[in-house]
Design goal:
- By secondary structure, the protein is an alpha+beta fold.
- The chain has seven helices and 15 strands.
- It is elongated.
- It starts with a strand and ends in an 8-residue tail after the last strand.
């Protein structure tokens, strides 16, 4: 299993200060609109976005890591700056996009027809002249795009190393999320997702139980102890206190007898009674609280 990651980089060859201020305001505004709130403590955050200036770039890590194309479109439109997105999929596929004014100007990929053979390469290096350093030509970039034997078995990583070096991006941060978090140059924005998720909407009304999960079939020799475990779930409302009633023909015909009853390692007492001539074993869990099930939104 190789490396999968994504990040974006805004090209700012002049002063970073004003651009960073604008980007911070833009991220805060957008996250608020999406249902996130900004928090002070890292432990309270569900999303962390790091903004790191370096050379002619302002890099953003943690924004839609696996959707760099959409992020490239968004930031190039909102900032009017050229944006480069970098993605690697399982160290096999490299994808480097160039965006201007909300549109994709070019997309380099070493395997644009992924999962088909032979792999096809996409990209027009001449379109990248506006973000290349003065001493780097479009021919240099085109050469960097070409896979070579030294890249094997992690072809995408070898190609991206060459591209990142030509663009003068910070190669350590591109690959290593831990180094991003450790970077002293990082401006770190922390957000918590306050949107109501489907699993947060709980059912109300009476509790309702149904069988759930796997129940192993009993296949035990005669006079040998075995364990019965029945998994279930509540799809109805919250309840406190559970009564368990065990009955059936095996109990009536004395084909089975219960040795003990356990709850989280502790033995329980039971009540055995006859109802309409049938044996019943009853257990009472008065203090058990079972949360409400997830509400069916269909």
């Amino acid at each position: 299993m190789g490396t999968t990651f994504g990040n974006i980089h805004l090209y700012v060859p002049v002063s970073h200060e004003d651009a960073i201020t604008f980007i911070i305001k833009l991220i805060r505004k957008t996250m608020l609109q999406e249902g996130f709130s900004e928090v002070d403590l890292l432990d309270d955050a569900t999303s962390t976005i790091n903004i790191i200036p370096s050379n002619s770039w302002i890099s953003i890590y943690g924004w839609n890591l696996t959707h760099s194309h959409q992020a490239g479109v968004f930031f190039s439109r909102e900032t009017s700056l050229p944006v480069v997105s970098i993605e690697s999929h399982d160290s096999d596929v490299a994808a480097v996009g160039l965006y201007e004014n909300g549109t994709q100007r070019d997309m380099y990929s070493n395997w644009i027809n992924y999962d088909n053979f032979p792999p096809e390469i996409s990209g027009t290096s001449e379109k990248w002249k506006g973000v290349l350093p003065e001493n780097v030509s479009s021919e240099d970039l085109a050469n960097a795009w070409q896979p070579n034997e030294d890249d094997y078995p992690f072809q995408a990583e070898g190609i991206l190393q060459r591209i990142v070096a030509l663009l003068q991006l910070d190669s350590q941060l591109i690959w290593d999320e831990a180094k991003v978090e450790e970077s002293k140059a990082a401006i770190r924005l922390k957000f918590r997702d306050t949107r109501v998720q489907a699993y947060d909407i709980r059912a109300d009304g009476l509790p309702k139980f149904e069988r759930y999960g796997y129940m192993e079939e009993v296949n035990s020799p005669v006079k040998e102890r075995f364990q019965i475990s029945l998994d279930g779930r509540n799809t109805g409302g919250l309840l406190k206190g559970v009564k368990v009633d065990i009955s059936g023909s095996a109990l009536d015909e004395e084909l089975v007898s219960f040795y003990n009853y356990m709850r989280q390692g502790n033995s329980l007492s039971s009540v055995q009674t006859l109802i309409d001539g049938h044996a019943h074993i009853r257990l009472d869990f008065e203090d058990v609280i079972i949360p409400a099930g997830i509400k069916d939104m269909r």
